[in-house]
Automatic annotation (TrEMBL):
Protein name per UniProt: AraC family transcriptional regulator
Organism of this sequence: Chryseobacterium aquaticum subsp. greenlandense
InterPro entries referenced in this protein's UniProt entry, alphabetically: Homeodomain-like_sf, HTH_AraC, HTH_AraC-typ_CS
Domain HTH araC/xylS-type: start-end pairs: 72-176
UniProt KW Translocase keyword: no
Pfam families, alphabetized: HTH_18 (PF12833)
Keywords attached to this entry: DNA-binding, Transcription, Transcription regulation
GO molecular function: DNA-binding transcription factor activity; sequence-specific DNA binding
Domain of life: Bacteria
Length: 187
């Protein structure tokens, strides 16, 4: 097994933490990306056990079964699309997932819903709403710019989706978040 699949690797910091643990165990990484590590050699059962012991307390987990790997790949593709790319493409999510995972979208959608208890679309929307929250708190972009960056057809559509998920309007969310933040010199 040259390629390991690791659950909960969702950001660049996760990649650094996993890379660090692999280095400590003397395992040489050829390639590492969200949810996936390619090693230069087969991992022994003992090395796998040791890796499991250090990853689990950090919130990560080795994934062995095929279905769980596919679910984790779906999540990582969505997280990458929403949080790590300036999404210039107007590609359909179903097309992106099908082409990257080499499976029919209906299969992926049914598997995801069965295992996770929510649809891929709801997971995608939840990720987009989290990104909107992050961008609102940074206060660097207008709502129109956020809508454009996240490929919303309009500010109204973004606002409606945001309110449906959070119960708050984006402007109210921004207002209450700013009220809770203290200037650095007041800490």
């Amino acid at each position: 097994m040259n390629t390991l699949f690791i659950k909960n690797m969702v950001c660049n910091r996760c990649i650094m933490v996993v890379q660090n643990e692999l280095d400590k165990l003397g395992l040489t990484v050829k390639k590492i990306k969200l949810g996936e590590v390619t090693l230069d050699k087969e991992i022994t059962p003992e090395e796998k056990n040791n890796l499991d012991k250090v990853l689990i307390p950090l919130g990560f987990e080795l994934i062995d079964d095929k279905k769980s790997r596919i679910i984790e790949k779906i999540k990582n593709i969505i997280i990458d699309l929403v949080h790590h790319q300036d999404n210039d493409t107007k590609s359909n999510l179903s097309d992106v997932l099908s082409s990257q995972l080499h499976h029919d979208y209906n299969y992926l959608s049914n598997l995801f819903s069965e295992v996770e208890g929510i649809t891929i679309e709801k997971y995608f929307i939840a990720q987009k709403v989290e990104k909107v929250k992050e961008l609102l708190v940074y206060d660097e972009l207008s709502l129109s710019e956020i809508a454009f960056r996240l490929n919303y057809s309009s500010v109204a559509y973004l606002s409606n989706q945001f309110k449906k998920v959070t119960g708050l309007t984006p402007s109210y969310f921004k207002q209450i978040k700013e009220g809770k933040r203290k200037p650095l010199d007041k800490l």
